[in-house]
Structure formats: structure tokens, C-alpha cells
Amino acid sequence: MKKKIAIIGAGIAGLTLGNLIKKNSDHEFMLYEKEESLSLDEGYGIQLSINSLKILNIIGFNKIDNGKIYHPTGVDFFNIQNKKICELNLEQFNTAENKYTTLKRSTLIEFLKDDVYTQHLRFGKKIKEVSELKGKVLIKFDDNTNDLVDLVVGADGIFSNTRSFFEKKKNEPKFKKAIAVRTILKSKSELKIDEKKISLMMGKNCHVVIYPVNKNKEFNLICIIRDKKYDPDNVRLLINKVTKQNSDFEKVFKNDLKSWPLYFTPKIFPSTNSKVFYIGDAFNGFLPTLAQGAGQSIESAYELFNLIKEDKKDIQNVYYQERLKRAVIVRRRSNINFFAFHISSPILQVIRNFFIKFLVKRKNFINSYLGTVYKY
Ligand SMILES: Cc1cc2nc3c(=O)[nH]c(=O)nc-3n(C[C@H](O)[C@H](O)[C@H](O)COP(=O)(O)OP(=O)(O)OC[C@H]3O[C@@H](n4cnc5c(N)ncnc54)[C@H](O)[C@@H]3O)c2cc1C
């Protein structure tokens, strides 16, 4: 039966769901975004493993301009002094159609917005009130417009406001006592890195990830630094924690820096309303240390889309159970990586490096640690 769906939030999750509905079903939908436009500034880089590529290709991502994306061949592990520890081949997970991809977030959003922008996207929309009416959900927005829909999808990020209208128990995101600092590099600077790969440099209470985001020799640099509180005016001071360990980073951090505190969702709660679903970070926000936030947003949109399309019974329960299973796997690995990437004791660092070197060569381990996440 044809359904009317309201998607709250036009980030990666909401836009992916919109595209899937538009291109592969007859359901009606509208995306409601609280901002006045989509954030298309340069943004940070995004890594997409093949689990998300498989889904994006269903909505035509394979036709994207190849110059705007990159397929890194592997991950090089370094210590923060830029001394190589070992490498992981990423191509082992690729198939002819689906390859590990890096790109700017703005490139992905541009692609996702194209087919939904004019007819299916409304800006400046914040929910004011919700109620049930004749088996449907009536949403009132604060600009005095409203919509009567069969289903509501909360895709409004880790601090989901949609949850506060429908749930008693809210997901309370927690500050991880870590800050992310980002910049785009126009060259690899003094750093001894392979431009075709993702470089991961692990230091005391910090790690740096650098990877190409297109064929234009632009690199995304993201640095995660542990710190008890976030003060946006103090980012330069924070950076000293990294430059003290390797002065080659001084040049790198001269560029324009953006920073934000890292939050994660400690507990995942189901929706208590059979007509309301959560996807992307609104379902669960992950630490960025497995680079799966966008991938899981895309996956969750796809899972929900399939259940709605097939008009399955008990969608709510099936969706939650399946999503929970995936989220737990990804969360566990993101947490392990977060711990391993920030070890401060020099002795423990030596032990960690030994283990990474040992494990990246073990096919069985790599297949169960990364393969289960990537081969979706
Ligand atoms: C440092 C860092 C690095 C990362 N690197 C990667 C990576 O390499 N690979 C990867 O896969 N992921 C990465 N991620 C995570 C990824 O970016 C996010 O998980 C993903 O963007 C979440 O998408 P989303 O659509 O659920 O939420 P969001 O992107 O947060 O979008 C939510 C949208 O909803 C709108 N909104 C909010 N409130 C309301 C409201 N009340 N009403 C209407 N609209 C509303 C917002 O304006 C926004 O447009 C990283 C994250 C961080 C912090």
C-alpha cells in the first residue's frame, strides 16, 4: 500500500532514504530540514567502505565524476613520528563494482541532493507538535505548516530532536573527552606518506588520519586529540599536543582548522511508536575510529527502505533488531580502535604495534574484524 513518509533531517541518512524511495518505489515522501540550506561548504572527508558503496550504486553513485572521488589502495600504519609500522591492503575487500572510496562530504551531499532537491526538500522546518489522527501522525511545524503522514523517520543526527517528541527515554549522547580537528591539505607537505593510501599515525593521546579525497591532490586530515573539555578558542593549544610529538605537523596545522567535540551514543533505545523510526546518527552515533558513521547512516536507510517497500509486518521490531546487531558490531570495533590509537605508555605502544603488525597479515582475523563490517 502506498505510504506517505516524513523524513526529518537532510543529512546523509535522510537524503539516502529519500533517493531510495524516489528511485525504487511509489511511496510519497518529504524531507524536512531545519536549516535554510544544505551545508555544502568543503566539509570534512568521508571514507566509504564497500558496504555503503553497494547501496549508493543502487541510486546511481557509479555515474559520479570519477575525478571527484578516490579509491585508496590501503592503510599505512605509522607512529606519530611518521615511522611506518605496517600496512593493510584495502583492495582485498573490493569487487569490480564496489571499491573503497574517499571523497569530500560536500561531494556526497551534492550527489544525494540532486534528484530530491526541488520536489522533496523543504528548508527551515522545525517540529512544534506531534499528535495521532485517524491512525496517522500529524506533524505541526513552527512556521504553522503541517503534514499528515503514515510514517515519520527521524534522520536528524546524534542530538535527534525528533526523539524528544516521540520518546520518554532519549538517547543521551556523551562527550568522549576527545576533540576532532580537521583541515584540507593541498599537498602532503613534509610528511612521508603514500598519496594513494590512507595514512594513520598514532601518538600519545592523539591520532592523525590523512587520505586523498579526489584526483586533484587534495587530502583530508583529521586529528583526534584526547582532552577533558572542548574550548573552540583553544584549538591551537590543543594542537601543541601533536606538534610536540612531531614538529613536521607545525606546517600542516598552519592551514584553516575546524574543530568539534566527539560525542557517541552509549545506549541504543528502540522507537516506542510503531509509526516512528530512527536512522543514521539519530539511531546511534559512533566514534569515528572505524570510519563507519556515514556507512551506517546509508545502511540504516537501506534496511528501513526495504522493510517499507516490502510492506513487511512488524517492521518496527524487525528494523530495530537487525540494526541493533549491526550497530553493536560496529560500535565494539570503533571503541577498540579508539583505545588502541591513543595509547600513551611507550611500552604499551610497542606491544600494540607488534600486535597490529601481526594481525594485519592474518586473513582470518582481518576477515572477521573488518570483513564482517565491509561485506554487508
Ligand atoms: C571526526 C569525524 C570523522 C568522521 N569520518 C567519517 C568517515 O570517514 N566515514 C564515515 O562513514 N563517517 C564519518 N563520520 C561520521 C559521519 O559524518 C556521520 O555519522 C554522518 O554524517 C551522520 O549522518 P546523519 O544523516 O545521520 O546525520 P547528520 O549528518 O548530523 O544530519 C542531520 C541533519 O538533520 C538536520 N536536523 C537536525 N535537527 C533537526 C530538526 N530538529 N529538524 C529538522 N532537521 C534537523 C541537520 O541540520 C542535518 O542536516 C565522521 C564523524 C566525525 C565526527
Describe the structure concisely.
With 376 residues, the chain is an alpha/beta fold. It is built from 11 helices and 18 strands.
Describe the overall structure.
This protein is globular. About 35% of the residues lie in helices and about 25% in strands. The longest helix has 27 residues, at about 315-340. The chain has about 375 residues and is of the alpha/beta class. Helix 2 crosses helix 8. The structure holds flavin-adenine dinucleotide. Flavin-adenine dinucleotide (FAD) binds near residues 13 and 282.
Work out the helix count: 11
Which structural class do you get from the secondary structure elements? alpha/beta
Q: Assess the beta-strand content as a share of residues.
A: 25-35%
The succession of helices and strands, N to C, reads: EHEEHEEEEHHEEEEEHEEEEHHEEHHHH
What is the subunit arrangement here? single chain
Ligands (ions, cofactors included)? flavin-adenine dinucleotide
The overall pLDDT, averaged over residues, is 95
The description of the largest β-sheet is: 7 strands, mixed
Helicity range: 25-40%
Low-confidence stretches: none
